[in-house]
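This part of the workshop introduces the protein records we will be handling. As an example, a complete record with its sequence and its structure tokens follows.
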Amino acid sequence: MTLNGLLTTTSIHFDPTGTWLGITLLTGAFAGLLFFLAPDKSRLSSGRRLALVSLRTAAFLVLLFCMMKPSIVAIRRLQQPATVLVLADSSESMNVADGLNGKTRWEYLRETLRSAMESTEEEIKNESMLVRAWVFDREAREASLDTDTLDIGEWKRHPSSDETAIGSAMESAIRAVGEQPLSAVVLLSDGGQHAYPPNDLPPQSESRRLGERGVPLWAITYGQSRGAAQARDASVIGLTAPDKVFLGNTVEVIGRVRLEGLADRETTVRLLVEQADGELAEVARRTVKPAESTTEESVRFDWTADSLGERKL
């Protein structure tokens, strides 16, 4: 835990027995008794008389002190820096060079972080702000961030770079922060989530949780915005399969896909089935070649159930 400072305040508190009015009356009564019932001057010398008065006064002060029940309270406040969580998309799509002068989306992402150093340099150096960076594709992992420049480093390809699991990455990174005070989450991505189970958590779910905690989410997107005529996209909009299948039986699975900007291009549609170990495995594939720019196509697969239990398609 990084501590920005330690503040200690000390104060004295009283919790009197009874009321303050009662203690005041008791003090007045003692003063009156001490005045009217003073030691006999004829029987005691002045020195002994002074000593007796002092003892009586000391005894009363001790009694008064106990009745007031004083306590010393010391409060130590630890100032912990607020954490800013940076989530950087490192999937394959961030290596697309669709920026000015052939710059990739990842290079623009690095420039964004470096440009933020000027406004956050003082907070970072005096440790009032802690910046933690995570990179994600199909998996989320903490990244080293240069605190002098806020540079996150070069883009690296990983076996998991073929997917973009934004929601799952948000959940993993926020859980890793734990009980540290979270002041903001900054999401740097091209904005497209492409992930398969079990990493297909919608980003909206984690965004709502951040909103409930009062933590702002800042999203910065990269990549050119294409018009409808230029956009290329493929999505599954429907899947039909029997609810129950007997072991060894072959059934027909019908999917419906929407294709945009892929006219006269071959598009591969794969059927993935959950295995006994929880992993998804390809069991069939079909190739679709739409004639129009925007179209919906039905795709049929044959699948033979080879094990018992519930399965995701």
About this structure: The helical segments are 20-36, 46-68, 105-115, 117-125, 166-177, 203-213.
